Recover the amino acids of this structure.
């Protein structure tokens, strides 16, 4: 939690937080998964009911969080339908810039312009959630002149040759890089010159 010290739980995620000895500053969701034991362990004013059944608890959190960026964990290692819903929310760029943390990778929505200072040879993937065109420098296989499309050409398993610069004609493209470069993703999305760690 060094990069993102304020912990917000999405509904039943609060149960895992309390079990791990972590106390969230807020719990947001329709509250159908939080246990009575977890509710009893938290001050009542930290539990925020957001009853809209047409959006996920992940999206509810992003709509209410006011922060420079969000690192989301625990959303990619369970049900596949939940993971796909998370990627849909990412692509729509709801709320603050958000990085989803997986076991091996991090994923985030690429802004219209993106600069990432990555070590040479870093695995770099682009996954379009909608048809998108762009330009690139610093990729082993450039995307210039290509139309990326979820039902056609993808941009997975590319390689960075150092500093990567991308421009896109519209939102909707996800970027995936190895988890060990989380702080570089934070720096790219927040405009930070220096981010702790690597």
């Amino acid at each position: 939690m060094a990069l993102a010290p304020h912990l917000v739980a999405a509904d039943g995620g609060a149960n895992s937080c309390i079990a791990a000895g972590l106390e969230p500053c807020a719990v947001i969701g329709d509250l159908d998964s939080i246990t009575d034991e977890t509710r009893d362990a938290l001050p009542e004013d930290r539990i925020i009911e957001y009853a809209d059944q047409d959006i996920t608890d992940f999206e509810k959190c992003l709509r209410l969080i006011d922060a420079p960026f969000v690192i989301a964990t625990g959303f990619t290692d369970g049900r596949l339908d939940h993971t796909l819903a998370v990627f849909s929310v990412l692509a729509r760029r709801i709320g603050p810039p958000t990085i989803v943390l997986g076991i091996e990778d991090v994923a985030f929505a690429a802004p219209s312009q993106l600069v990432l200072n990555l070590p040479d040879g870093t695995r770099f993937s682009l996954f379009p959630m909608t048809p998108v065109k762009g330009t690139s420098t610093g990729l082993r296989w450039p995307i210039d002149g290509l139309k990326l499309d979820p039902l056609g050409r993808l941009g997975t398993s590319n390689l960075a040759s150092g500093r990567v610069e991308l421009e896109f004609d519209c939102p909707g493209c996800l970027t995936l890089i190895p988890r060990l470069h989380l702080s570089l993703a934070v720096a790219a999305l927040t405009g930070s010159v220096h981010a702790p760690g690597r």
Remarks:
- Residues 160 and 193 are 19 Å apart (CA to CA).
- DSSP finds five helices and twelve strands in the chain.
